[in-house]
Amino acid sequence: MTADTQAADTSEKPDYDSPWKEALEKLFPEFLALLFPAIHAEIDWSKGMQFLDKEFQKIVREASTTRRYADKLVGVTRRDETPVWVLAHVEVQGDPESDFAERIFTYNYKIRDAYQVPVASLAVLADTDRGFRPQHYSAALWDCRVQFDFPMVKLLDYAEPERWAELEASDNVFALVVMAQIRAKVTDDAETLKRWKFRLMRLMYERGHERARIEEVLRLIDWMIRLPKDLEAAFRQELYAYEEQRQMPYVTTFEQAGIEKGVQQGEATILMMQLEEKFGSASLEAHRERIEAADPEELLQWSKRILTAETPETIFH
Q1: Domain for residue 303, yes or no?
Q2: Last residue of a domain, which of 143, 159, 175?
Q3: pTM of the predicted model over 0.85
Q4: Nearest-10 crossing angle of helices 253-279, 211-224
Q5: Count of structural domains, the chain
Q6: What angle do CA 312, 267, 294 make, to 5 degrees?
Q7: Domain final position from 159, 194, 218
Q8: Residue numbers of the domain that contains 297
Q9: Do the domain assignments include residue 309?
């Protein structure tokens, strides 16, 4: 099988939820501005935002599911000074989930019940089924009825030529994340996918963002678009040549970001192994998402605490 005809999927199953979790945390205002602009306009961003991972984990800990999702619960302030919480949910798996809308409803009312705050649930569908578009949940018994509606964005809609052109022309850096996700999902030919990956990387450089932002987005694109080893090597050679042309440092932005991410993933893996060994698999699953989303400093602190911790809670306080 040649590189021109081989499939785009690799022996390693693509990990779509982890890059989305990082993208939501690093680029949450940009995420809302691109996909939910009316909601973005209602928020007073000068008041900052708070990621409520601990609160959200308490809500979903009892849920029994083998599916993986990218969820972020974020505290923000509306322009009328009302504190509100926003639950951004990204459906990242290939097959549509029949009880998706019910789960969105359940998370929403559990958060409201536990914390007594207004909650907006936003859904982003990254699957490839054009007909899967849940936006409502309803249940009724006699004259008693529940009706829950939530905003939804279908990323596949952006693959249409007019919408794709909007993404390419956008100065919102999150557009590149959306483009990477779409191409990773809809492109079957690996050589074609390599060309798309290079095009998106080049767009990132050409838009003149600061170095830290470039590193974040390049890492996300690399994480979402996985290539077979031979094509990945060829892609990196092309990218390095392009970086040299632009007089980038010897250790490239892209390469350095990959090194840092590899170290961080290694630290997270070791901590999860220690947690499972000391407190069991249930504790590991309860804290897995938080560990995977942690920054290096947090991972270091937790790795020290686990040595003397008597309960998992004392590690993550």
Answers
A1: yes
A2: 159
A3: no
A4: 60
A5: 2
A6: 65
A7: 159
A8: 254-314
A9: yes
Sort residue 22 into left (φ over 0), alpha (ψ -120 to 50) or beta.
alpha
Question: Contact 177/23 with Cβ under 8 angstroms?
Answer: yes
On the 0-12 / 13-18 / 19+ scale of CB atoms within 10 A, 274 is: middle
Task: For residue 8, name the pLDDT band (cuts at 50, 70, 90).
Answer: very low
| 294, part of any domain | yes
pLDDT in tens, 208-217: 777 788 888 8
Per the structure block, which two tokens stand in for 57? Answer: 């984990």
> Residue 119: how many CA atoms within 13 Å on its side-chain side?
25
Is 50 within a domain? yes
- pLDDT per residue over 61-82, tens digit each? 755 554 556 789 999 999 999 9
Do residues 144 and 258 share a domain? no
290: nearest Cα among 282, 300, 298, 280: 298
